[in-house]
């Protein structure tokens, strides 16, 4: 299937990919919620609060608006053609084979390195209760268990992810309810100092200046990584036309409640100057309120967040490798499904690489975590950019009458996609300006060179790829 031709299959819906449509509405909804709540919120928010003060609430809200634009753009594409390899497929169709190749492998890399970090992090969280267990043992157990979950069936994956997400949601809602109780009733050790005025009475809402607040956007965007995972479920959702729009449309409420709402309450109960990098703001706030076993409760929640991320990583890597194989951009073995309709070979190879990461993170210094998260951030921004550019070109084709309109059009059409794209470019410049975060751009440059070499080799060995690479995407012909 060349990019220059829009087949009837593309015009009428998704092709039959061979997957089992085993993800129900309940599971897709919670996968979408879980994708918006991760370790970036539970642990990473502490460093962002220390840099931006109460204005971090505005940064999460601003980034949340952009994420909603991205997800509505993705939603329009998904309802135009719901396929499991969504990001890579849309880049391939609207930008050309090379961009599909780059996007597929980059998203795969994002989840492999994220899985490396999350497995090691989960093992560290286990040390909180069982310091005598070697870190590598815990990491290996988690790796094997989650591997089995993903290999058995998509229904098992969906059910495990449902409960992981439920734990995270319950923890945040519990924190909000308890915090509101402290603010209105004044109970607990924090009752005497808890007040909404904490949001502006300690050097103002922007205590370190607007510039310092804007510089936190790179860390804030990292917290939203994986929100696009709902797009990967398109090929295995029981009723994508119904479940995907619902999951995407509830995103603003999830952001308002879980990010803006939780931070509003936390920063009202505890003044921002008490938070610091390397400490979970939830642990600190629970401790300040005087809740017994606060650290243990949050440690359990963060453990489930790490395992949820790793579980999602194993799921998405197998699907992305299968999409690449279907387009002759990866070994054909990755395209095979086992008897349970899961891409077992792709999952197995990805899990093996995650296992190598566990070993590496065990023996190298803590800097390895910085490098891993930097790679994930760069890969995530690239993926979001490809969604937006694909959406812009799709809308151009629809306006020209070359493609059918989606049943789930994004508000504002291509305009909001342009706004989100410019925002992401701005965040990239902020990353380049920050000496600590700049490492991810170096890694991105190296990865780009590797992909360029890989594409050149692929074209030289595969005449079909070379022929496709010579085709223009359909939208090149749209005036």
Written description of the protein model:
The protein is built from 20 helices and no strands. With 479 residues, the chain is mostly helical. The two termini are 23 Å apart. Helix 2 (25-35) packs across helix 9.
Keywords:
mainly alpha; globular
What number is the mean pLDDT? Answer: 82
Query: What fraction of residues sit in β-strands?
Result: under 5%
Order of helices and strands: HHHHHHHHHHHHHHHHHHHH
Q: Please count the beta strands (DSSP E, at least 2 residues each).
A: 0
Question: Distance between termini?
Answer: 23 Å
The number of helices is 20
Instruction: Tell me the structural class.
Output: mainly alpha
Shape: globular
**Low-pLDDT sequence parts:** 1-16
Radius of gyration: 22 Å
Q: Biggest sheet: strands, sense, closure?
A: none
């Amino acid at each position: 299937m060349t990019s220059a031709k829009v087949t009837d299959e593309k015009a009428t819906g998704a092709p039959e990919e061979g997957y089992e449509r085993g993800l129900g509405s309940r599971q897709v909804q919670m996968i979408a919620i879980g994708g918006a709540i991760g370790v970036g919120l539970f642990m990473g928010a502490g460093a962002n609060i220390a840099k931006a003060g109460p204005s971090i609430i505005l940064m999460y809200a601003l980034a949340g608006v952009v994420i909603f634009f991205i997800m509505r753009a993705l939603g329009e594409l998904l309802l135009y053609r719901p396929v499991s390899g969504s990001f890579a497929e849309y880049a391939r169709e609207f930008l050309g084979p090379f961009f599909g190749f780059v996007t597929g492998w980059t998203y795969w890399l994002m989840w492999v390195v994220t899985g490396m970090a999350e497995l090691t992090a989960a093992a560290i969280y286990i040390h909180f209760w069982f310091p005598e267990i070697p870190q590598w043992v815990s990491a290996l157990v988690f790796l094997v268990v989650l591997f089995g979950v993903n290999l058995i069936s998509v229904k098992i994956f969906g059910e495990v992810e449902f409960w992981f997400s439920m734990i995270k949601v319950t923890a945040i809602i519990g924190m909000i309810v308890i915090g509101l109780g402290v603010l209105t009733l004044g109970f607990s050790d924090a009752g005497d100092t808890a007040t909404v005025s904490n949001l502006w009475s300690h050097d103002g809402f922007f205590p370190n200046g607007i510039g310092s607040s804007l510089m936190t956007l790179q860390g804030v965007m990292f917290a939203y990584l994986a929100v696009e995972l709902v797009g990967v479920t398109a090929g295995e959702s029981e009723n994508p036309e119904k479940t995907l729009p619902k999951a995407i449309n509830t995103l603003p409420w999830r952001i308002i409640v879980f990010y803006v709402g939780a931070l509003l309450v936390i920063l009202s109960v505890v003044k921002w100057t008490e938070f610091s990098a390397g400490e979970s703001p939830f642990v600190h706030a629970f401790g300040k309120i005087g809740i017994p076993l606060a650290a243990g409760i949050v440690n359990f929640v963060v453990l489930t967040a790490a395992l949820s991320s790793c579980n999602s990583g194993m799921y998405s890597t197998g699907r992305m490798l299968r999409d690449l194989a279907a387009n002759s951009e990866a070994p054909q073995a990755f395209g095979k499904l086992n008897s349970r309709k899961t891409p077992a070979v792709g999952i197995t190879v990805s899990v093996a690489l995650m296992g190598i990461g566990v070993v590496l993170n065990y023996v190298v210094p803590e800097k390895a975590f910085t490098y891993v998260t930097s790679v994930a951030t760069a890969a995530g921004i690239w993926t979001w950019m490809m969604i937006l550019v694909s959406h812009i070109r799709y809308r151009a084709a629809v306006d020209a009458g070359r493609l059918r309109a989606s049943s789930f059009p994004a508000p504002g059409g291509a305009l909001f996609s342009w706004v989100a794209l410019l925002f992401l470019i701005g965040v990239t410049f902020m990353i380049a300006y920050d000496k600590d975060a700049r490492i991810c751009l170096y890694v991105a440059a190296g990865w780009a060179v590797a992909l360029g070499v890989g594409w050149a080799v692929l074209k030289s060995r595969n005449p079909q790829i070379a022929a496709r690479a010579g085709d223009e995407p359909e939208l090149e012909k749209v005036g």
